[in-house]
Amino acid sequence: MLTLTNLTLSQFRKILKTCSGSTIVLDTETTGLYWWRSKLTTVGFHCLEKQIEGVIDCGFEVVTQDDFDRLDDFNEEGKEAINSLLVSGTTVIFHNAKFDMGMLEVCPETTNGWKIIDTAVMVHLYDSRLKKSLELAEKELLGTNSKRSHIEKAPTNPKIRKRIWQWPPAIRQDYCLNDCRVTYQLAETLFPVLKKLGLLPLFWKDMQYLKQIYYTEHLGISLDKQFVGKASLAMMAKQKELEQKLYDAIGYEFNWRSNDQLSKALYEDLGIARPINPFAATKGSYKTKLGFERVKELKGGMYNKTMTSTFLLMEKVHHPLGELVASLREAAKLYKTLNQWLDLVDENGIIHSNFNVTGTRTGRLSSSKPNLDNIASKVRSRFTQGLFSGGIIRSEEYNLRNAFVARLGYYMLSIDYRQMEMRFFGIDSGDENLLSFLASGKDIHLMIALKVWGDCGKEQNMIHREWSKTIAFGLIYGMTTGSLEHKLGMTRVQANKVIEDYWGAFPRIRPWLFETVTTCKEQGYIRYWSGRIWRENTEMFMYKGANARVQGGCADLLSIAAMRTHKWLLEKGYGNIVSYIYDELLMEIRKEHIEETANAISVIMQVPDLFELPFLTDCSVGHTYGDLVKMYQDENGIWHLPENFEKEQSHA
DNA sequence: TACCCTGGCGCG
DNA sequence: AAAGCGCGCCAGGGTA
After folding, report:
1. Which residue is closest, via its CA, to the C1' of C12?
2. Per-residue confidence (pLDDT) for residue A389, from 0 to 100
3. Quick one: how many helices (H) and strands (E) in chain A?
């Protein structure tokens, strides 16, 4: 193997050209972790076939702003070289492809059709429990730790040791080359393993999906900075006001974020009676979902120490300060979220969230920097345990989804699945009752709610429906009677009745769960409909496989629907997907094509070729992610813009 | 100082 | 150790 360091750009181009059509590894060293604002210091490559590896480097330690600015030429030329030399027939291996591709500004989708292999995704498909950093993947799968010797050569100052861009170029280049070699070894090791496990079709699907997600991340989503600024000020004022109220009530100032201090203030200094913690340590025997009798002393429990969760404060303490603390926490949290967005927005007002393919145990995407999956909606949850999510509508500046707006000439179009997990559970378990409920279009949660609690008036029924929903998932995924008892403030007898009603409604729950655990016990993993595997070796956690095959199965379904949607949108030129939120695709669509798109994508998302039962959707439209209004579906199932849509929207 | 863990809370 | 599941982010508090 010929190793070449300190390459000039023209040497680099020449060698890269000789590797065209082969399999190569590319790795970059950069000034940070954000592809859209960090800069390249180093690019390494490794090609076993041609017995050559090499690295180009900016050639200096990047310390000052001046140094940072000096990187521009190197970046421009380096990107140009890679862009022009990657051609169809070449396979490029990366560890975390989206990042390196972002730094290099290349993607086979938009350039010359070369092929991607991402070793981080390989690791994830092999065993989603493993850490995906190159260092830990190497340790786990190759049994070596080659980074160590390189890091030891780096400057000893702990700050600089973490900043590769400040390392001497020679050490940095060796480090980068080493990463390339390790990445190659990972690919070489894992490829036959994935093949043997029958995971290659899924792997290639994920590589295709990766390119699409790369596209989505680069397009980004437009942030309304004016709204964010306004809301941020409002939150700050609200926080100050509520803080003062709390201090006045307690009688002194303290750090309310510290649960130790808050607990002391409430229960000691103010003398509020300490609540009995419903989630405290449980003793003795209880029945598991599968009917096993388990005798055990469970240590700890939730909220056992400080008893300051909103749930306890509001539902058990019943003191006005509970509401105050909850509102204070909310304002503070929203304030921090808004400020994070201002930090993460690019110079064009665009937010580039990361949609991580390797982030979850089950195969779902996760979103980070910022997380677009958990943005507070206009409906405020009241209970932290998720038992009740209806009721309180947030005022405009509290609805943070208002911050994400459609670009000029576009509307936001959201299409989500109706009862996706219930539907999937019905299919996966083959539960006849559930399937017929779903096929009939009946509101299963409401029906169960009426059966359990009776008709208590429309408003109360809707609350019961929310409870019913949570309980349904809880029971599918292994919630015990004790937990249900406490959460709903029921007696054991009542809780048992609720459970019996559910098991009566969905008789396949228990056998399906049992089969999942048995399969996992036999082979160490379970396999979803999509072919993805979920591993678990510890028997007492195998019940989690039930959730995994539903949650992960839905995720793989959505990824297929999303790829078909993306393709359709590109062909039509009507707009783009801007976010993927578990059971929902958020799109930005040209105003004049909303109805056509809603109808076409609804059908596409049903994936009628994959399952007996179509996955029905709901469509909503708006100017922002926060003001989506449900579209109207006529008797023929055709979607239309809501009545008076423009009029309603324009007042805002 | 730089981690690591935990609690709290937003979403599906 | 863990018996509804899956995330990410922030802040506090303890430890090396």
Report:
1. A258
2. 46
3. 23, 24
CATH 1.20.1250.20, applies to A223-356: no
How do beta strands A40-47 and A52-57 pair?
A: antiparallel
Q: Is the CATH number 3.30.70.370 carried by domain A405-420+553-651?
A: yes
Whole-angstrom distance, CA of residue A164 vs CA of residue A162: 6
Q: Where are the alpha helices (DSSP H) in A538-593?
A: 544-572
Q: How many CB atoms lie within 10 A of CB A279?
A: 19
Alpha helical stretches, state H, A303-350: 310-312, 320-344
> Does the domain formed by A2-219 have CATH 3.30.70.420?
no
For strand C, list residues 561-620 of chain A whose Cβ lies within 7 Å of it: 582
- Give the C-alpha separation, A566 to A215, whole Å: 10
Note the pLDDT tens digit of each residue in A346-399.
Answer: 999 999 999 999 999 999 999 999 999 999 988 876 654 445 545 578 888 889
**Helices (H), ranges, A573-627:** 594-605
Examine domains A2-219 and A405-420+553-651 and report if their fold is the same: no
pTM of the model: 0.93
Each residue's pLDDT tens digit, A615-645: 999 999 999 999 999 999 999 999 999 998 8
Q: Which residues of chain A have pLDDT under 70?
A: 276-305, 316, 381-391, 647-652
Tokens of A159: 């700050």
What distances in angstroms separate CA A637 from CA A74, A216, A255, A599, A606, one per listed residue? 56, 30, 55, 9, 13
- Dihedral sign for Cα atoms in the order A81, A84, A90, A95: positive
- CA dihedral (A206, A209, A210, A215) in degrees, to 10, reads 180
Q: Which nucleotide is nearest to A353 (CA to C1')?
A: C8
Residue A289: strand, helix, or coil: coil
* Residues 369-388 of A with CB within 7 A of strand C: 369-371, 373-374, 386
List the CATH code of the domain at A421-549. Answer: 1.10.150.20
Tokens coding A253: 């100032």
Q: What pLDDT is recorded for position A649?
A: 61
Residue nearest to nucleotide C7 (CA to C1'): A366
Give nearest nucleotide to A371 (CA–C1'): C8
Burial A557-568 (b: 16+ CB within 10 A, else e): bbbbbbbebbee
The answer to whether some atom of strand C lies closer than 7 Å to the beta carbon of A363 is no
For helices A492-505 and A481-488, what crossing angle results, to 10°?
110
Query: Pick from A139, A141, A149: which is nearest to A177 by CA?
Result: A149
The two tokens of residue A27 are 């790795």
Determine whether the distance from the CB of A491 to the nearest atom of strand C is below 7 Å: no
For residue A57, what is the enclosing H or E element? strand A52-57
The nucleotides of chain C lying under 7 Å from a protein CB are 1-13
Let me know if A196 is exposed, middle or buried by CB neighbors in 10 A (0-12, 13-18, 19+): exposed
Structure tokens at A503: 């098991």
Residue nearest to nucleotide B12 (CA to C1'): A582
Check if the beta carbon of residue A101 is closer than 8 Å to that of residue A82: no
Domain boundaries along the sequence of chain A:
2-219, 223-356, 405-420+553-651, 421-549
Tokens 């730790």 — which residue?
A145
Instruction: Report the C-alpha gap between A39 and A124 in whole angstroms.
Output: 28
CB of A525 closer than 8 Å to CB of A575? no
Check the CA dihedral A187-A189-A190-A192 and report its sign.
Answer: positive
Helix (H, G, I), strand (E, B) or coil at A534: strand
